[in-house]
Amino acid sequence: MNCDEIRSLVPLSLDRELDWQSEKMLAEHLDNCVGCRNYLAQQQATQGKIRAAATYHRAPADLLERINRALPTEDRRNLTRSGAKPGSGWRFGWQILNGAGLAAAVCAVLIMVVVMPLRPSMEEVLRDEIVSSHARSLLTQHVMDVASSDQHTVKPWFNGKLDFSPPVRDFAEQGFPLVGGRLDYIGHRGVAVVVYRRRQHIINVFIWPSIDKAPSMQSAQGYHLANKTAGGMNFVAISDIDPVELKQLVEML
Question: What is the pTM assigned to this prediction?
């Protein structure tokens, strides 16, 4: 695919709307095209600014009252029994029993869309970006920009490429050998990724200054994440190894 075709996929990828084959083609192209990587970074920055600037408003109470009055009597009773109160931003469930129930269900969906827009937190955005980056690095086999088990080779490689100096250590004696590093773009900024190995498993450790909160220990899409803030840096490790082992590495960082 040419650059124009690839760039048409970027917004879909950012909105998590691409199938895995298209994601693979996109990742492979980005791996070899600086121009498209820059375009992706620009789009990510724009998306972040829009999220930060967007305002969200609760639907006015009179609108909810009108919708409530338009529902069949039985459905209004169900809403009352569920504890729903118009104007309070409520959620509710329903049973589709007949045509009237289906109409009520449609109204219910409209209320949830209008009244309760779900805005992801910055922590959730960072987590999703880290998970996507980790999966993409494994899928495209572009885990490292610099491959070395020598911390005195990996650490200097980051010099001049970031506005901070990430700490790099080798934990081979503890069973987590250093294998390299790479650059990435997470949370609208460049970050360092220090790569370790645990048996046959790759562990990506994302590092950036601790200005923003890092995702906490959790699991997503089959991967485990563990974090730590120390020495003015956020460390977020992600892998599919046992979370206890992942936490062991994080505690040593």
Answer: 0.55
